[in-house]
Amino acid sequence: xxxxxxxxxxxxxxxxxxxxxxTMIVIGSMIGSGIFIVSADIxxxxxxxxxxxLVWLIAGAIxxxxxxxxxxxxxxxPHAGGQYVYLRESYNPLVGFLYGWTLFxxxxxxxxxxxxxxxxKFSGVLFPSLSAAAVIAGGRTITWAQVLAIATIMLLxxxxxxxxxxxxxxxxxxxxxxxxxxxxxxxxxFFAGWKSEVFAANLTVFWDAAWTRxxxxxxxxxxxxxxxxxxxxxxxxxxxxxxxxxxxNNITFAAGEVVNPKRTIALSLLMxxxxxxxxxxxxxxxxxxxxxxxxxxxxxxxxxxxxxxxTSDRVGTAAASVLFGEPAAVIMAVLIMVSTFGCNNGLILAxxxxxxxxxxxxxxxxNAGVLNxxxxxxxxxxxxxxxxxxxxxxGTYGDLLDYVIFAVLVFYxxxxxxxxxxxxxRPDAERPYRAWGYPVLxxxxxxxxxxxxxxxxxxxxxxxxxxxxxxxxxxxxxYVWRMALRREAVGRE
Length: 493
What we know:
By secondary structure, the chain is mainly alpha-helical. It has one domain: Amino acid/polyamine transporter I (Up-down Bundle). The chain is built from 19 helices and four strands. The protein is globular and about 75 Å long. The N terminus is likely disordered.
């Protein structure tokens, strides 16, 4: 009998995500509730069908160019952590940490909270009692919607801690369902709900830009736009379309679990983003073929309120009401519940991989860098779930997401700029995929994103500067964390 001590082989991430799975994560993480809601705010900001479509088209072009550019970084560094790793290697560990810090504090967890609450709120259409408040110990009042939101986060987190298979199956199933449903609504809109007189009326003012604002007393004012004012309005309007098109980069976080990641992720990014952008454009064409772009807040019906003043900004429901009448609210609630549930699964699955990578670098809780017996970062998943749940209870996730819009754009800019930096730093490194259209398209992406970020900095300072402050707060946290690690290392000597 061999009595020599044996050491169990270290656990490793399992490469089980194939091209279909990776593409479903891209599509599923992108499509949440935004496409059914944000067109109302865009319509109020730009005031016409032509500019409404242009905002979505520009956001789509920026998204696809960004995805094509990321393909080179994935091929160069097909590791868990994705964008965090690209920033760390392009610049230094501090820049990578600032991204991971902001991702954990707000970007990923805040989005998870917002999507979970959206799921719960639309559940209230089917179960009205969910809209009622509940009182818990200590006298603090929370809503049943918050309770349900946290429950869904915990459920999806638990499923993902049981191994990659469960998360992958949920992603494939719910993404397929919501994509098919969205395609079905678009086809019905074109062939059953299309109103030629509405579309013709929208065409007559297709390029008449105007910014419509509603004062606290309900007074509506409209300002015609041209020149610099129009460009500024387009930049502000981009916020909704960009965020509805965001999270496509989540598949890069899980690169350590993708089969043949150098090829698979680049293809999934291209296929996923193009699919979503085409669907978004078609959905908005349907909107302007079924509803007037402009309207009045007190309009008697969906047509009178138009896209601008759809009830609670639910443009998708307003359009569906043309097709289905009264049942539209229930039909859209079910679709959005399916959409947001699948969206959150992708966000939860992918986000934990960033904290796992950070922990391996000593920049996050040590246990978050350990894989459980199912070869997934269980601790990282639960830490993410707890913070996202806390944001659900705080009710501030919406404000926080608004605050980091600028920061998100800056990190995207830095990441794409990393392609130029790494071409110089590692000229001989293997690059199975090179950024399409380099250097023109990556440079175009940087310029376009920088212009939007600058526009937001000027036009929405109350939202952008707090985000900058949150990112900068990560600098002392980084050095305190490093100092604590050094002390721990010295204590072990």
